[in-house]
Amino acid sequence: MQVFQLISEVKTYLSLQKQQHKTIGFVPTMGALHQGHISLINESKKVCDITVCSIFVNPTQFNNANDLTRYPRTPEVDIQLLEQAGCDVLYMPDVKDVYPTTDTRQFNFGYLDTILEAEHRPGHYNGVGQVVSILLTGIEPNKAFFGSKDYQQVMIVKALVKQLKLPVEIISCPILREDDGLAMSSRNMLLTPEERKIAKLVPIMMEEARDIAKQIGVSAAKSYIHNEVVKVPIMKLDYYEVCDTETLEPLTALKPNQQAISLIAVFVGNIRLIDNWMID
Ligand code: PAF
Fold first, then answer.
1. Mutate to test the pocket of ligand 1, among 55, 150, 156 (most ligand atoms within 8 A of CB)
2. Which of 172, 190, 191, 233 has the fewest CB atoms within 10 Å, measured from its CB?
3. Is the pLDDT of residue 258 over 90?
4. Strands, DSSP E only, in the chain?
5. 52 CA → ligand 1 middle, Å
């Protein structure tokens, strides 16, 4: 695997590959890699000739300085995992290479940037827009792969690519789960063993709430989640919503032929976890 710290080096390497008509797949990450990330690398390798991964903890998408400081960083293990997965190129820049000057751009993602994650983490998706646009413009991949654990992020990135007319296909990949159902996340490694035991309740609650939404209704599912979360002293609910899969408009009732998704953000101790379940 070629490891570069400068986008100029990545561009030089990739321009040779592009001259040979090789297709480029790109997996942007913030490191602390787990099998969820590796599944994105595998997807890229299936459909593209060259797979590029980036590891960059993007400061502009953190609305909380503490969250940025304690975000897990495991570069040596990440490199090993990527080597084993057969990733071709790793771009591991420092802040100056990504932001030679301060990025003052303000994107307008409309309604999508007012709800759920956007409401609870103001400015987060503007920062995601900044870094993803810089990475996509620098690497110019044919396809870019994102995990659907952050379902709203995938929608934002698709909106970004459309607004900026970037010639890249955004591919959303399924959530990978631990054996006990917890959605894989870099943040899981910050949980204490006690918190980790509690965290496995999240998918259990989500599955039960999905059944309640289908059988009784959306407000019963919401009440169930609120009641279950307050029972656990170290859990705190940020939001639980049932939304239309296409628009993310909150739903108060499930209608036939309407695809719905339930989305949650919940604190276990100080660690904020997100997850989502389709309601089919
Ligand atoms: O999902 C993430 O890990 C980040 O938001 C991303 C897409 C790498 C941008 O920093």
1. 150
2. 233
3. no
4. 2-4, 24-29, 50-55, 89-91, 143-147, 169-173, 235-244, 260-268, 271-279
5. 14
Structure tokens at 277: 């379940």
Helix (H) or strand (E) holding 96: helix 95-98
Name the residues annotated as catalytic. Answer: 37
CATH code, domain with 121: 3.40.50.620
Q: Which of 124, 140, 173 is the last residue of a domain?
A: 173
Q: Is 49 domain-assigned?
A: yes
Does residue 280 surpass a pLDDT of 90? no
Return the ligand 1 atom nearest residue 61 CA: 10
Percent of the chain with pLDDT over 90: 98
State which of 91, 98, 153 you would mutate to test the pocket of ligand 1, scoring each by most atoms of that ligand within 8 A of its C-beta: 153
Beta bridge partners of 278: 261
